[in-house]
Write a structure and sequence with these properties.
By secondary structure, the protein is α/β, with parallel strands linked by helices. The protein contains 15 helices and twelve strands.
Length: about 400
């Protein structure tokens, strides 16, 4: 968790700025706040890191995905292609927009593949929810070509990939809208927070209103503002934004150290027969928050994880643990269990979620083991970790040698 590794005086200073004004609300109260606008500053810092024309901070990465869908005009009855490997929030946001998730195959990038998207397209397909998983990025040239050929709206969930880029453009900026998560486990954190980004001014205005009960935020009198759209409360608070502001300023440093440590691990572990790594569509754009290692097959991965547990190594396999990042764990979705009646209960499912045929995704995730990269590791710690990982892998793979 790189962001939380670096909490310090910077975060305390930004929080104290807010507490001294007593204004925790991100809008209005101009006279009392002494020109302290942390949400605005946080958004400006995100634009600086990503190059986005517009950024809008909200209460979580999940609500950022909801804003990204709404701002792009996705809603009731629209079919949206989604990956089976993502945090469940990406799919939940589609459902709560009234849209219908259609699952497609991923590839070794850990993201949706162009061929997977193409195979899932139907006459009702409106959009693609492209999730950039585990700090990397999808094969954007191929995916953009498919979206253009089929007139599909591209929405990017780059919740795990803030700071990553593809051929010089930040992930999140290839589609109509994109978003990042700033929760406790990300490269930079607000505690809870998210940001929707776009280069489309109208999409930004849509999100700005949608996330605050439809307020247009024109003028400085909240009671006199107009409400051009129906919305809800996805606002970020000033204290969360203050933390995110300080954290986002640290991302270039964190990314540099992450890459250094990841490269050292890959250099050592690539010497082990049977070990490979997830595909990076643009290695130069890696945020390097994760080391994603492949074993020859699912059984090998399970034995390696068992050895890691014995050795106190923190790698994990999404196939075997209930982290809500893989469709194998989403029984509530497959059975359409919800506390609220959703449009999908009325419209029906575009696929039989209990009998999906996604062999490529099952094969990729089954043999994947991921490690979180820490920016505060010393060189000695990286070497010691590489040695532990290597010994565990070699011991596990020796069983079938």
């Amino acid at each position: 968790m790189p962001g939380t590794e670096l909490f310090g005086i910077e975060e305390k200073k930004e929080i104290n700025d807010v507490l001294e004004t007593g204004i925790l609300f991100r809008y209005n109260h101009d006279a009392q706040r002494n020109n302290i606008w942390k949400a605005r500053e946080f958004e400006a810092e995100v634009k600086k890191v990503t190059g986005a024309k517009f950024a809008h901070a909200v209460s979580s990465g999940s609500t950022a995905v909801s804003c990204a869908l709404a701002a792009a005009g996705i809603g009731a009855g629209d079919e949206v292609i989604v990956p089976p490997f993502t945090y469940i929030a990406s799919v939940e946001a589609v459902l709560f927009a009234g849209a219908l998730p259609v699952f497609a195959e991923i590839d070794e990038t850990l993201c949706l593949s162009a061929s997977g998207i193409k195979a899932a397209i139907t006459p009702k397909t409106k959009a693609v929810m492209l999730v950039h998983m585990c700090g990397g990025m999808a094969q954007m040239d191929e995916i953009l070509k498919v979206c253009k050929e089929h007139n599909l709206t591209l929405i990017e969930d780059a919740g795990q990939a803030f700071g990553a880029s593809y051929k010089g453009t930040s992930v999140g900026l290839f589609g109509k809208t994109g978003c990042y998560s700033f929760d406790f486990f990300k490269i930079a954190t607000c505690g809870e927070g998210g940001v929707m980004v776009t280069n489309d001014e109208q999409a930004y205005k849509n999100a700005d209103s949608y996330s605050d009960h439809g307020h247009d935020h024109v003028g400085n009198n909240r009671g006199m503002e107009q409400h051009p759209v129906i919305g809800f409360n996805y606002r970020i608070g000033e204290i969360n934004a203050a933390i995110g502001l300080a954290q986002t300023r640290k991302v270039p440093h964190i990314r540099e150290k992450n890459r250094e440590h990841k490269n050292a691990l890959v250099s050592e572990l690539s010497k082990i027969p049977g070990v490979s790594f997830s595909t990076l569509a643009d290695p130069a754009g890696d945020s390097a928050t994760f080391l994603n290692m492949f074993l020859p097959d699912t059984e090998s991965a399970k034995r390696v994880v068992d050895e890691f547990n014995k050795a106190g190594v923190g790698g994990f396999n999404y196939w075997f643990i209930n982290m809500y990042h893989f469709i194998n764990q989403w029984n509530h979705l497959k059975d359409l269990k919800s506390a609220a009646k959703l449009p999908i209960h009325v419209l029906g499912t575009p696929q039989d979620y209990n009998n999906l045929h996604l062999p490529k995704s099952q094969e990729v995730v089954g043999r994947l083991i991921s490690f979180g990269i820490r920016c505060t590791w010393t060189q000695e710690e990286v070497k010691a970790l590489a040695k532990k990982i290597g010994a565990s892998v070699e011991k596990a793979l020796a069983v079938t040698a």
